[in-house]
Design goal:
With 328 residues, the protein is an alpha/beta fold. 32% of the residues lie in helices and 29% in strands.
Length: 328
């Protein structure tokens, strides 16, 4: 049975705990203090598998799941990869391009699995959208729009772009199978924390079917909870609401038809797409454990994590420079 060490039982870590506990694995948990370990005790994990010193279990386990502040990702991933362990790390892989690149290279060198928590890659709705984009059902994709926002407590280890906007930046890279050629961003710090709490990122992609313009908006203020992606093509468009359990996607066969010098907007049929009601976090953790067992490369590997970090740091550079930044 695969032995898994979970590091971190914070706001998101407890969801990892719940899902890992439901899987056929041998689970170990580490946190900084005894009180933080209470959620694991309540699930019935024995004290012999709980610790406040993660190094105590490092030699006992096959792999580790890291759900700790972003600033700790680089040293923890490096430590476990060098010790020959497979690693799942929550996004972002790191906050710095060079650190992310080093980890991706280290995973390749040590032949270890390093999966990044780009959870939307594991939602069945995403796989439907990606297949539809890649197979040409949308025709030429012109525009992508993502809004990941809503009123909630801000994270204190990064701004909202690295905390939330990164989800849809990676998602768009995944849907298009490409990286943007240029990035433009505008940020605001309404709370005065010294980091963004509203972010608008504009991405320009070059694909075999032409140029695609994409925007990703993230915030901590708008009432409600928004996890919406829109794909607009010249043959079909789609709205995907990731908050919905099963019928996430609606497609619209709307087209613009040219008559002489004028265009006419023709509204076509609308279809509702049923997606399997699967919890994406459980799906990505299952995929990680399967990669550990089979040595199959993960869908969200370290290089995809590195690419997302590169785009976001280009966005930060754009904010400072007040102009678009080319992605090398």
């Amino acid at each position: 049975m695969t032995k898994v060490l979970l590091l971190g039982l914070g706001r998101w870590g407890v969801n990892h705990l719940r899902n890992l506990h439901s899987m056929p694995i041998e689970l170990y948990v580490a946190e900084n203090g005894e009180q933080q370990l209470e959620p694991a005790r309540k699930l019935g994990l024995p004290d012999a598998r709980l610790t406040t010193h993660y190094q105590a279990f490092a030699g006992k386990v096959d792999c580790v799941v890291i759900v700790t502040p972003a600033q700790t990702h680089f040293p923890l991933c490096k430590e476990f990869l060098e010790a020959g362990k497979d690693v799942f790390v929550e996004k972002p892989l790191t906050l710095a391009n060079e650190e992310s690149r080093q980890l991706a290279e280290l995973a390749d060198k040590t032949r270890r699995i390093l999966q990044v928590g780009h959870i939307f890659r594991f939602d069945p709705a995403t796989l439907w959208l990606r297949d539809a984009v890649q197979s040409g059902h949308f025709g030429r994709v012109n525009m992508l729009r993502g809004h990941f926002g809503g009123f909630k407590r801000p994270r204190n280890d990064s701004g909202v772009m690295f905390a939330d906007g990164i989800h849809f930046v990676d998602l768009f890279n995944f849907l298009l199978g490409a990286l943007p050629k240029s990035v433009m961003a505008v940020h605001h710090d309404f709370l005065g924390r010294g980091m963004d709490d509203v972010s608008l990122v504009s991405l320009e992609y070059e694909t075999p079917r032409g140029q695609v313009w994409a925007t990703v908006e993230s915030d901590y203020f708008i009432p409600g909870k928004f996890r919406e992606v829109i794909v607009c093509g010249d043959k079909m468009s789609a709205v995907c609401d990731y908050n919905v359990a099963q019928y996430k996607i609606k497609t619209y066969e709307n087209r613009h038809l040219c008559h002489g010098k004028d265009f006419k907007g023709v509204e076509g049929a609308m279809h509702q797409i049923e997606c399997p009601p699967e919890e994406p976090l459980l799906a990505e953790l299952r995929a990680f454990v399967n990669s550990v067992r089979t040595r199959q490369a993960p869908r969200a590997d370290a290089w995809s994590g590195y690419d997302a970090v590169r785009v976001l740091n280009a966005a930060l550079e754009s904010v400072k420079a007040g102009r678009a930044v080319e992605l090398n």
